[in-house]
UniProtKB/TrEMBL annotation:
Protein name: 3',5'-cyclic AMP phosphodiesterase CpdA
Family annotation (Pfam families): Metallophos
One GO MF term attached to the UniProt entry: metal ion binding
Keyword terms of this UniProt record: Hydrolase, Iron, Metal-binding
Family: Belongs to the cyclic nucleotide phosphodiesterase class-III family.
Domain Calcineurin-like phosphoesterase intervals: 13-208
Domain of life: Bacteria
Cross-referenced Gene3D superfamilies: GpdQ, beta-strand dimerisation domain (3.30.750.180), GpdQ, catalytic alpha/beta sandwich domain (3.60.21.40)
Stretches that traverse the bilayer: none
The keyword Iron is assigned to this record: yes
Length: 283
């Protein structure tokens, strides 16, 4: 990954999530070409002006956690023209992820421990949190992880900080995704409340752009790179997805103006068209 030269005043973070990559060209759920979708996302980010300084990938990197899936994923992510950082999701396998990305020195070397990490080399401090529970759809942070996070945040209380975790620590209203909620969200919320430098909690899992106030900060959920969870807030809504336009989040840090989050759409669409011509606003 190329090195980044930190700029004290501005920093651009792209976030993608829920890649669900499969091996052998197999479509996810028999429908979704996740490999083609990831390739479009990488091309989009590389061609962006200005180009993001880094990319955060908030979990569900592959679909079943198999080694051959990570073998497909690794070269695709290597095409990114900027550094990228990973956290696992409930579809990932820690051991196989570590084997595929052994050169990612920020990751814990042990698959027996959560893959939590800290990056202090950018204008915005990054803390990755492994919320996965092996064999479970839902998420949590162990008590030991919460103690570790509290200590890490206490080390640099004046530095703007972003947390990256797969599972959003709140109830979304999308019933089938809420059946296994974040187990100790209240403990995390209490902890974050004591550290006002936390600018964002960046999440995945829900395959939609969703925001919620969280302990004086903001929890932002990233759209899926390929497919989206159906926006159905009926309590008995089935577990369905659709092929709405894929998306990503772009977090723009400015030392004077703070962190602003934009939702971007991946793909080609008509435009851009001008608002004005030589006579002023176009009628």
């Amino acid at each position: 990954m190329p090195d980044v030269i930190p700029n004290a005043s501005t920093f651009l973070i792209a976030q993608i999530s829920d890649l669900h990559l499969k091996a052998g060209g197999k479509p996810s759920y028999g429908v979704v070409d996740t490999l083609a979708a990831l390739r479009r996302a990488v091309e989009h980010l590389n061609a962006s002006q200005p180009r993001p300084d880094i990319v955060l990938i908030s979990g569900d990197l592959v679909d079943f956690g198999h080694p051959d899936e990570y073998a497909v994923l690794r070269p695709e992510l290597q095409r990114l023209a900027m550094p990228y950082y990973l956290v696992p999701g409930n579809h990932d396998d820690r051991g196989h992820l570590l084997a595929a990305f052994a050169d990612h020195a920020y990751l814990s070397p042990s698959p027996e421990a959560p893959l939590d990490w800290v990056i202090d080399s950018h204008p915005v401090r990054l803390i990755g949190l492994d919320t996965t529970i092996p064999g479970s759809h839902g998420g949590q942070l162990q008590d030991s992880q919460l103690r570790w996070l509290d200590a890490q945040l206490a080390l640099r209380p004046q530095v703007p900080t972003v947390l990256i975790l797969h599972h959003p620590p709140f109830i979304s209203g999308i019933g089938h995704m809420d059946r296994e909620p974040f187990r100790n969200a209240a403990a995390l919320e209490w902890l974050i409340g004591g550290h006002p430098q936390v600018e964002r909690l960046l999440c995945g899992h829900l395959h939609r752009a969703i925001q919620r106030r969280f302990a004086g900060s903001l929890s932002c959920v990233c759209p899926g790179v390929s497919h989206q969870i159906v926006l159905d807030l009926q309590p008995g809504a089935p577990a369905h997805f659709n092929l709405e336009p894929p998306g990503y989040l772009l977090h723009h840090w400015h030392a004077e103006h703070g962190l602003v989050t934009h939702t971007g759409v991946l793909g080609e669409y008509p435009g851009p068209y001008p608002f004005y011509d030589g006579n002023g606003l176009i009628d």
